[in-house]
Amino acid sequence: MARDPLRKTLRVNGAELYVELSGSGEPLLLLHGMGGCAQDWQYAARESFESHYRCIVPDARGHGHSTNPLALVTHRQLGLDLRGLLDALDVPRCKAVGLSMGGNTLLHLATAEPERLEAMVLVSAAPYFPEQARALMRTVSPDDRSPEEWRTMRARHVHGDAQIRALFEAQRDLAQSTDHVFGAAELGRITARTLVVYGDRDPLYPVELGVELHRHIPGSALWVQPNAGHGAIFLEAAEPFARAALAFLG
Length: 250
Prior knowledge:
This protein is of the alpha/beta class. The protein has helices spanning 46-50, 75-88, 101-112, 131-138, 147-156, 161-173, 184-187, 207-216, 238-249, and strands at residues 6-12, 15-23, 27-31, 54-58, 94-99, 117-123, 193-199, 221-225.
């Protein structure tokens, strides 16, 4: 049976970032998606990763137990936070798995400081936000959420309804984002061994974006999941994903 994780809160770039540490061995980042939190990984075979690595599982700023005094969530800021978190934990270099926003955050770190990442798995990440994603982002509002959605969010994000409203608004604000654009030159700076994982039925990011990442990240591998949507790594998909990710990272 897995031990309970060690829980820490570290001050990084003005925010209090919550992080869970579990397992042993080389360090491995597990980064959740927008609106998620560290506990999401319990549904994505976290124990499989813990059996091979010392897992570093944070709540991104404004998510879960982490604060966000800036009241703003941008992928560039999350990349800066990730560097600060690794510095605070005295981790100069590591491997990583990032889901959606977490994968986008890894792109910021991998292009700005390539030496920090040895290998990474990018799940449903994108080099930029296409119009079909921006159109969906523009529809997000805290005012049309069901009581069940609010209950689910309150169970994951502990700083009250204002925090949850800010997360919905941050998702909507991504429709105007200009800070997340990576072309061939930027992606070509990545030195981490990279596995790009995409669903061929992703409603946010067409599979062509996964091919684009694969084409421009040197030496990368591409796994297209048939009949899969956005972030297909949970529940019944968790163990197959973990096996593939661990084989690649190893």
